């Protein structure tokens, strides 16, 4: 049986590391994003998101403004609210969300259609541009939001809105005569439909999700057919010369060998494929998921868990093409990778998937938001020189500072919903077992059989690798506790009530059988260390990066001066780990380095025969997740190695 997540209503995160991020959601991120979507952030790009719904509902007059998928900003905001209310009751926030849901319900058309772009701006073009129109993408996010809000509050109004929308989709799309035989240009609705099936048990929603996956890439490409129609109207100019591989529609999903095209679309689709492979016991589809996962993590993923190397069309390129200063690595893509990974882990009970989920969460996802919750990265480079992040160049997508908001703002609310749902990643639950995935201090009640098992975890991870887990109310029949053994863990030990115990290892989990109340302590070493990239990664040849457990570290100008490209690191040294008060308390890494001397060079000399001379310097590294929280400056993850 597939594992499932813990009910967010029954988990309370008390973690020293994560609380300063998770608590931001309710206290800062949700209020800030509410102001952003009401266009109340000075000097920020306008959203007009709620204004679009007011116009569609007939409350106001005006024109649609924003991206074709602007509705999804409020959908993801509502999803974050739903997750937040599950753990933290807040009548005022709930009242605000209910008012938004009332507005959405008013905007919905009589037949269930819900998309303000096509309601307000182009009602005659409904379903005529599935490639670019994002109608199904928007529908999927509405479905995910409604399920989260229902599960967090027990209120059904939003759920009833999206069920009416889902029924319309079931009547509109499929193999039957008279239905549209198309599929989403941007995958997402499949995830939403599957969640609706899981909540309602209504098989037709699962069947439609399966249809959208199975139809993709079969026969003549549907999007090219759309574009050949005499009345076709292009929405995105950059789609001229459209290639089906961009939307993973060039071939059937079961025949795809490598991750291609738009990174977010890809991992959203793979997440749905994993769910469907399990529900339909489709071994061929599961093999495809495993093959695509391996291609991403073994050949197309940054050390930070970022994916999508190209700033043009936000896409995968080719194996080992991982440039550091012009990559995209969209925050949403890493969120999608975590979504894909937790599904694969829950299906296979293989902890290696969690290693990657953890890497994405601790690095790229956290880097996407400032420590005050009020500015954001959409793009996550691994090397930044602010002076060359210029408009109308190949690096115009790279921002040297977090932005207050974006015209296309999919990442900020996506980060919010991910942080608000962190509890879904900490544990997985089986019929007779609790799986510990992430090391995050918390208390929770986990239902196994008909018993409520109390589990608490205390740790100062990732800066200290000692985890104490207390399990109470253990059923008389006993349960299993499966403890993840991270790939980076050294000298891994488990003690039960203070005594070291043996454990059985299977697929990266240490299994213990519990028959009574117990205190389990896991200890391991995760010292800071130097790592190198496969030589086929041209951008990183001759360079080294520094990691500690799941954390990737970087050098910033604030600690190490300008022109970080002048630096070299001898790797035959022990890295010093120093407790610092920076960023609310971290382990800062201190190490010996070398810097090229510029004294021989004259300002007017661009090229010369001057020999390289190096001087000793002390370098300091901080977690990549926190870069740019001290003002604009250079940053790099990879540094030249001195051998």
TrEMBL record:
One of its GO terms (molecular function) is hydrolase activity. Residues 434-523 form the Non-reducing end beta-L-arabinofuranosidase-like GH127 middle domain. The keyword Hydrolase applies. Coiled coil: none annotated. It holds the Pfam family Beta-AFase-like_GH127_cat. Residues 529-640 form the Non-reducing end beta-L-arabinofuranosidase-like GH127 C-terminal domain. Residues 11-423 form the Non-reducing end beta-L-arabinofuranosidase-like GH127 catalytic domain. Keywords: Hydrolase. InterPro entries: Beta-AFase-like (IPR049174), Beta-AFase-like_GH127_C (IPR049049), Beta-AFase-like_GH127_cat (IPR012878), Beta-AFase-like_GH127_middle (IPR049046). This is Glycoside hydrolase family 127 protein. It comes from Faecalicatena faecalis.
């Amino acid at each position: 049986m597939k594992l499932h997540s813990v009910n967010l209503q029954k988990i309370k995160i008390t973690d020293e590391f994560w609380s300063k991020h998770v608590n931001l959601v309710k206290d800062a991120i949700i209020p800030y994003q509410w102001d952003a979507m009401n266009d109340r952030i000075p000097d920020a790009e306008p959203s007009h998101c709620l204004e679009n719904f007011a116009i569609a509902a007939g409350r106001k007059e005006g024109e649609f403004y924003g991206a074709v998928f602007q509705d999804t900003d409020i959908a993801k905001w509502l999803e974050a609210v739903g997750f937040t209310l599950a753990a933290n009751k807040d009548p005022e926030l709930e009242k605000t969300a209910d008012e938004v849901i009332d507005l959405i319900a008013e905007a919905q058309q009589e037949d269930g259609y819900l998309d303000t772009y096509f309601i307000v701006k182009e009602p005659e073009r409904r379903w005529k541009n599935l490639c670019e129109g994002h109608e199904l993408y928007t529908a999927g996010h509405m479905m995910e939001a409604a399920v989260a809000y229902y599960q967090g509050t027990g209120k059904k109004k939003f759920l009833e809105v999206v069920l009416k929308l889902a029924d319309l989709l079931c009547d509109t799309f499929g193999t039957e005569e008279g239905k549209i035989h198309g599929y989403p240009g941007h995958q997402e609705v499949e995830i939403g439909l599957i969640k609706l099936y899981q909540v309602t048990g209504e098989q037709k929603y699962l069947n439609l999700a399966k249809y959208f996956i199975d139809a993709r890439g079969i026969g003549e490409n549907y999007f090219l057919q759309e574009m050949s129609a005499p009345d076709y109207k292009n929405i995105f100019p950059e789609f001229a010369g459209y290639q089906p591989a961009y939307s993973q529609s060039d071939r059937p999903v079961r025949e795809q060998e490598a991750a291609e095209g738009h990174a977010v679309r890809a991992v959203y689709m793979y997440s749905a494929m994993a769910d469907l492979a399990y529900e339909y016991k489709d071994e061929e589809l599961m093999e495809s998921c495993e093959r695509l996962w391996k291609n991403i993590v073994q050949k197309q993923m940054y050390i930070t868990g970022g994916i999508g190397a190209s700033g043009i069309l936000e896409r995968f390129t080719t194996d080992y093409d991982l440039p550091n200063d012009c990559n995209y690595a969209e925050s949403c893509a890493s969120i999608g990778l975590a979504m894909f990974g937790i599904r694969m882990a829950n299906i296979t009970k293989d902890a290696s998937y969690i290693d990657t989920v953890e890497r994405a969460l601790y690095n790229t996802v956290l880097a996407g938001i400032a420590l005050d919750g009020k500015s954001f990265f959409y793009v996550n480079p691994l090397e930044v020189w602010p002076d060359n992040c210029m408009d109308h160049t190949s690096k115009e997508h790279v921002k040297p500072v977090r932005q207050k908001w974006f015209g296309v703002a999919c990442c900020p609310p996506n980060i919010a919903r991910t942080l608000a749902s962190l509890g879904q990643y900490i544990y997985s639950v089986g019929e007779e077992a609790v799986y510990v995935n992430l090391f995050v201090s918390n208390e929770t009640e986990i239902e196994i059989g008909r018993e409520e098992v109390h589990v608490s975890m205390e740790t100062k991870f990732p800066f200290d690798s000692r985890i104490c887990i207390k399990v109470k109310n253990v059923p008389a029949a006993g349960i299993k506790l499966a403890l993840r053994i991270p790939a980076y863990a050294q000298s891994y030990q488990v003690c039960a009530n203070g005594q070291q115990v043996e454990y059985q290892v299977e697929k990266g989990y240490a299994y213990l059988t519990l028959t009574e109340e117990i205190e389990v302590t896991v200890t391991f070493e995760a010292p800071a260390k130097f790592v190198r990239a496969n030589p086929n990664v041209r951008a990183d040849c001759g360079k080294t990066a520094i990691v500690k457990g799941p954390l990737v570290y970087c050098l910033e100008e604030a600690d190490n001066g300008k022109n970080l490209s002048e630096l070299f690191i001898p790797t035959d040294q022990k890295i010093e780990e120093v407790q610092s008060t920076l960023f609310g308390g971290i382990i800062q890494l201190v190490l010996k380095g070398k810097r090229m001397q510029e004294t021989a060079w004259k300002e007017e000399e661009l090229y010369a025969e001057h020999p390289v001379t190096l001087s000793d310097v002390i370098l300091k590294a901080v977690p990549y997740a926190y870069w740019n929280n001290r003002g604009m400056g250079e940053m790099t993850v990879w540094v030249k190695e001195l051998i």
